[in-house]
Each structure stands twice: as C-alpha cells, then as structure tokens.
Known about the structure:
Number of strands: 0
Mean pLDDT: 84
Number of helices: 2
Shape: elongated
Largest sheet: none
Helix content: 10-25%
Order of helices and strands: HH
Distance between the termini: 56 Å
Radius of gyration: 22 Å
Strand content: under 5%
Amino acid sequence: MAQAKYIGQKVLRKEDPRLLAGKGAYVDDVHLPHTAHMALLRSPHAHARILSIETGAAASA
Length: 61
C-alpha cells in the first residue's frame, strides 16, 4: 500500500508571493476578442415555473 507523501507535511507554495503582490493572473483577468459572457440567476422561488424568457438582447449580441 503506497503512503501519501503530503499528508501531514508542509508543502512549499510557489505561487503565494506572486499572488500576494497582486501580480497573479486569474481567469477573470483574461480578455480575448469575441468572448461571450453569461450570468446565472437562481430563482428565489422553489419549484417556480418559468413562463417566458426575453432573449432579444442576447440574440442581437
């Protein structure tokens, strides 16, 4: 049976200085041309039925 070598051991985190100095790159920082964005909205009403969705603005984009 193989022993997990990281359990209970300190692990050197090489990314910390870069992230703490504000020099990290995050997915939200990447801006590519023709990139589509989306947002999710969860209903505050359990088991509610969606009767219609206005998609005109999204379709024109």
